[in-house]
Amino acid sequence: MFESLSSRLGNTLRALSGSGRLTEDDVKNASRELRMALLEADVALPVVRDFVERVRARAVGAEVTQSLTPGQAFLRIVQQELVTTLGGETQGLNLRAQPPLVILMAGLQGSGKTTTSGKLALRLKDVDKKKVMLVSCDVYRPAAIEQLRIVAEKIGVECFPSAVGQNPVDIARAALDHARRAYAEVLIVDTAGRTSVDEAMMQEIAALHAAIEPAETLFVVDSMTGQDAANTAKAFADRLPLSGVVLTKVDGDARGGAALSVRTVTGAPIKFLGVGEKSSALEVFHPDRIASRILG
Ligand code: GDP
Predict the structure, then answer these.
(1) How many angstroms is it from 147 CA to the middle of ligand 1?
(2) How many Å apart are CA 251 and CA 258, to the nearest integer?
(3) Which residues are registered as beta bridge partners of 219?
(4) From 124's CA, which of 38, 57, 174, 216 has a CA 20 to 30 Å away?
(5) Cβ neighbours of residue 92 under 8 Å, at least 6 residues apart?
(6) Please, which contacts does 79-84 make with residues 24 or more away whose CB atoms are closer than 8 Å?
(7) Where is the SRP54-type proteins GTP-binding domain (predicted)?
(8) Which residues, including other chains, have CB under 8 Å from residue 206's CB and lie 6 or more apart?
(9) Residue 113 in marked binding region
(10) What number of CA atoms fall less than 13 Å from residue 119's CA on the CB side?
(11) Among the listed residues 76, 71, 36, the one whose alpha carbon sits nearest the alpha carbon of residue 52
């Protein structure tokens, strides 16, 4: 079981008086607990180091008002810094671009790209009232193409046909042409992932990006992959101008540390959370909620 940061701090800082300022020593002890809590929440080590240092710098000398204990004062600073680092405000999709607006889905195999493509299509159709089209450029796995076709059928959205052996860029261009002619407002392009970062995959998705100039390039990442999420995110962010992140499988028991790592490493806002396997299981990202989860 995870111990929450507040109970950890309760033990460390209990002995201190209830007013005055946080001293260097208070903050040193509390920072140690913060570091442990973040590592247990699966935040990547370099991200933990940076984050703890920022909190430490803010906390030393900070005033402890009468209504707060030193632990609460420290925790409040941590919470504020987490929300700021996670992006502060909630950010939706950029729907202002010229239609058909293209959304390119990027991420490793199994991260939840196809499922999330369906979820976004459903949301755009039902909430934003857009005419949406889907296309799969995964020319290596017939099952992936079929999976997207089935999802599209279920939610009542057109899926542009594609087949194994075709060129992904040709598929995407043809789908975009078709979307234009059919007056589709959004085209969601699902892509092939790999089990780990690999050069051929990166070249392919970079070529897709160049060919179809997406308004949104979303990096999809499994929140359960913890420490690895940061390395994967860096590899994708180095090759693609990511406009947003979708963190999936947040309904699992991970503490959500991947959110902090991925946001820090990519600089791109987390836009949605996947919270289940169903097409309706997509939530808009709220930094404060995941901040509370990370802190336990
Ligand atoms: P892809 O290879 O990146 O396209 O990944 P898929 O969309 O096929 O998803 C891989 C697996 O993760 C499937 O079994 C999905 O049902 C599951 N999955 C995707 N998103 C979520 C989520 O938010 N929560 C849960 N519990 N499962 C998810």
Answers:
(1) 11
(2) 14
(3) 106, 245
(4) 174
(5) 271, 284
(6) 79/288, 79/291, 79/292, 79/295, 81/51, 81/54, 81/55, 82/51, 82/260, 82/287, 82/291, 82/294, 82/295, 83/287, 83/288, 83/291
(7) 269-282
(8) 239, 240
(9) yes
(10) 25
(11) 36
Segment 94-113 mean pLDDT: 95
Q: Average the pLDDT over 254-266 and give the result.
A: 91
Predicted confidence band at 15 (pLDDT cuts at 50, 70, 90)? low
Q: Which structure tokens are listed for 217? A: 């390039």
Token code pair at residue 263: 């946001």
The rounded distance, in Å, linking the Cα atoms of 50 and 72 is 22
Residues near 283 by Cβ (< 8 Å), separated by ≥ 6?
A: 250, 272, 273, 275
| Nearest-CA residue for atom 19 of ligand 1 | 112
For residue 114 and ligand 1, the question of a CB distance below 6 A is answered with yes
Q: What is the spatial distance between Cα 220 and Cα 68, in angstroms, rounded to a whole number?
A: 39
Amino acid at 212: I
Q: Looking at residue 5, what is its pLDDT?
A: 77
Q: Which residue has the tokens 């085209």?
A: 187
Quote ipTM for the complex. Answer: 0.99
For residue 1, what pLDDT is reported? 41
Q: Are 241 and 208 in contact (CB under 8 A)?
A: no
Rounded distance from Cα 262 to ligand 1 centre (Å): 18
Please give the Cα distance from 245 to 5 (Å, whole number). 26
Cα dihedral 234/238/240/243 (nearest 10): 50
| Mean predicted confidence (pLDDT) in 113-126 | 98
